[in-house]
Amino acid sequence: MSGQRVVRVASGQGFWGDDLEAPVRQVEGGPIDYLMLDYLAEVTMSIMQKQRARDPEAGYARDFVPLMERIFPRCVEAGIRVVTNAGGVNPAGCAEALVQAGRSAGVGGRARVALVTGDDLMDRLDDLLSRGHELANMETGESLATIRNRVQSANAYIGAAPIVEALRQGGDVVVTGRSTDTALTYGPLIHEFGWSPEDHHRIAAGVVAGHINECGAQCSGGNCLIDWWTIPDMAAVGFPIVEVSPDGTFVVTKHPGSGGRVTRASVAEQIVYEMGDPRTYITPDVVADFTSIRLDDLGEDRVRVHGITGAPRTDFLKVSIAYASGWKATGTLTYAWPDAAAKARAADRILRERLERLGLRFDEIRTELVGWDSTHGALAGEPPADLPEVQLRVGVRSDDRAAVERFTREIAPLVLTGPPSVTGFAGGRPRVQEIMAYWPALLRREEVESELRVEVRDV
Q1: What is the mean pLDDT of residues 177-202?
Q2: 374 and 259 in one domain?
Q3: Does residue 125 lie in a domain region?
Q4: CA–CA separation, 144 vs 151, rounded Å?
Q5: N or C terminus: which one in the chain shows less Cβ crowding within 10 Å?
Q6: For 65-165, where are the E strands, in sequence order?
Q7: Distance CA 170, CA 190 (A)
Q8: Where among 314, 339, 364 does a domain terminate?
Q9: CATH number for the domain including 392?
Q10: For the segment 207-229, what is each residue's pLDDT rounded down to a tens digit?
Q11: Which pLDDT does position 426 carry in this prediction?
């Protein structure tokens, strides 16, 4: 890509709770143009909605704000623009906190925060349903009306257009709600290169770049299957950077001297992550064909990605809906040699008999022997008699919270009224948790895009 203009988009977060030092390393470790920070998953939105129900000022990734206060001066000095979906279900609250953080960091008068809203559909659900939008479950075909009173959050996946507009209006930090993960990368590319909505191949290339970026270090050595034990300095793993040219070709790399490794194999592993039909990777702006991707290992932590093709976008946007679906609790006990697995299984039988005698009924009771079959299930076969120790993990779920509460009281008695050599209950009684179930749906895109708004605030 020598001689061409290149835009460098660095990944700084792969999920809410990722390495907080990674964005710092990205802005301080070498030249970049954009820093994208991906915080959201389906379950994240429902968690944020519950937080906001308790505190109207909550509902976004709170750790993003002190992070930005820390790196704001460097970003302003180096001209690095930040694009993030840390806004969650309260992007306005996140943007306001960010403005205050910028002033505290000493960048007042030198930076602008752009706010994107309109993806949150909670206040519009009844109107949408009344106008014939069933928001049917994509897996079962059932109308959302059947569980409407249990819905906790509902957000449409938005694409690049509002991000591009926010950058056009001068946003140095762009805060969105439920933006697609990939748009955090290809939005800046559309802005920089002026790609039109009909540039399907180039936008598809941006989607692939965003897909590679979205999970952070998963493409630069983290969670890597190939020779994972040889990957250097994972304690300071380098997060990926995509260096993109106007024609859509790009190189995946990381800062020189950082930990981890970027190879054809590590990039390929990330490409197949969360993959359905590779020919139709659907995003709000284009349908990318992942079978067209070509990878060239250039050596020295550089992989060239090219050949990508795309097709026109669909008429619908995906909607992520979370709804309350009962209660659950999980309890654990650890059994030691000899006959560790046999003791754990006996304890499970005793517990189930006691629950049955109490007349308690559950939608599901699930038992795992951690250390033997919790990962591979029945494929693990029978445990050996000399297994040193095993953790019995029993979980229940039910619409009846009282039944789940009683279950939490029946684990501890096994310590003295069950098989011997048990330990591991020092953590106390299991906690009852509300279950958030996922409801994927589709909505005609004009119903969402007509409500999208961009507001820019001076720091």
Answers
A1: 97
A2: no
A3: no
A4: 9
A5: N
A6: 81-84, 112-117, 151-156
A7: 15
A8: 314
A9: 3.30.70
A10: 999 999 999 999 999 999 888 99
A11: 64
